[in-house]
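>> received
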Amino acid sequence: MKFIIVGLGNFGASLAEKLTQQGNEVIGIDSSMAKVTALKEKISHTICLDATDEQTVSDLPLRNTDIVMICIGENQGTNVLATALFKNLEVKRLISRSINPLHEKILRAIGVDEIVRPEEETAERWSKKLCLRGVVDSFELNKNYSVVEVKTPAFLVGKTIKEIGFRKNYKIVILTIIKQSEVTSLLGKTTTVSNVQGIPQLETVIQAEDILVLYGSNKDLAKIAKITRE
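>> returned
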């Protein structure tokens, strides 16, 4: 996939590096030449430019970019201006960083597709969400292995654990299955509750609404993601 990461502070730089390591093409943008220079050997491409300048931004390969992420965190005004500019240029998918609740409301009013909250979510988790289709959450054990929660891919629905052969066919271990159900309180409020099913048996049939908890190498998890996109 192809990404443009705007803002190479701690979060943006970490995310850009992780996405590059996972085999994606990443263009990292920042107005600070020092930040751009520090990352030029770590991500695919780095550019020093003002992300609020329409003429400069419009020259970027936006049509060929899958996702644009605005990771500017130190200046709320610049973040909003850059987000609005990329939105007006009709990029395929726009994600922007939220600094506080009011800022988040402004971003939603602009019409961004998703909101990033670095104080709550790590760059590692976002790299999994962006690269592994259907990822709900993830936990990186080390730089090579992770545990991820994924929505059930369509090609697995209706099959048993034995038929799928996670370990044999994909070199992945299924740790458990999470089923979600709606519960209504005495006051009539409906909430979604996650129920962990324990270690799945070979005869367990995978359902469409299941969330699968998988363990494996990042490389093998990425292969599963590729299959679901095809």
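>> The chain has a mean pLDDT of 84.
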